[in-house]
TrEMBL record:
Protein family: Belongs to the shikimate kinase family.
Record-given protein name: Shikimate kinase
Listed NCBIfam families: PRK08154.1
Subunit description: Monomer.
Binding site for Mg(2+): 139
UniProt GO molecular function: ATP binding; DNA binding; magnesium ion binding; shikimate kinase activity
Recorded name of the encoding gene: aroK
Domain named HTH cro/C1-type: residues: 24-78
Subcellular location: Cytoplasm
Sorted UniProt keywords: Amino-acid biosynthesis, Aromatic amino acid biosynthesis, ATP-binding, Cytoplasm, Kinase, Magnesium, Metal-binding, Nucleotide-binding, Transferase
EC number(s) recorded for this UniProt protein: 2.7.1.71
Amino acid sequence: MPRPMTELTEQDKDPFLIALGERLKSLRGRRGFTRKALAQLADVSERHVANVESGVGNASIQFLRQLAQVLNCTLAEMIGDETASSPEWLMIREILRGRPEDELAKARVALAGIFDTPTSDSARRQRVALIGLRGAGKSSLGQMLADHWMVPFVELGRQIEKIAGCSIAEIHALYGPNAYRRYERRALEETVRNFPRAVIATPGGVVSDPATFNLLLSHCYTVWLKASPEEHMGRVVAQGDTRPMSGNKEAMEDLKQILESRAQFYSKADQTFDTSEMTQEASFVGLLDSLRNAVLKQDKAFF
């Protein structure tokens, strides 16, 4: 008699299903969805999502299509390697295969220089963009930096709402996550065009869309404001927002999963500054010193 799926050992699991589950979990975390939220938006069973993520679910094509639509990715990205789709992709992949992260970063910058509108490093440093999860201090520290440098402070979230004509929550409720990403990219494009000098606080999920994140990296000097998951959660709740904990016993695990899934993208920032166990004033002084040290190291001034 076959054993239930939940009793399967790692040796019993299909390697393809294990890899599929890991990709789904990573995509979900990068987009900032809890398992429950993803299941509701895709109109599928949360239990089935959990089984697929654990490597024991036998997912149908339709099930995967529904998930891919919500996660704004292709089926190829979810189930396999999309770089096998053409001879050029295959040749590019072979050039990049096995390269370390620093060489891949150089290749990305070189490709951006070929295909994107070139931006000089001095012009890029006229916009400092703060990235990271909620509770890291992007809004408060961003406003303090902007005041200190006497330049505009731009909260990208408010720019998104201004363009959409409604709140971010309403964008998600009325039009869905894909529409939100389109508004987010448009807001960033308009910010880059309208503010040659600024400090920008970005939404935590700006790294979820590679095209938008590439645009940010190309036109702004980026700083990842980092903190521990416990501090992220504590600061958000201290601000009066209890939604992260409301009705969700797995809130901390969800937050850790999101942070883990986005960390590799956040780490592409020009600088990382850890605000853990620091007051707002100490964080500001430390961040300002960190940016000054970057100026001395690169011999290129901000503003």
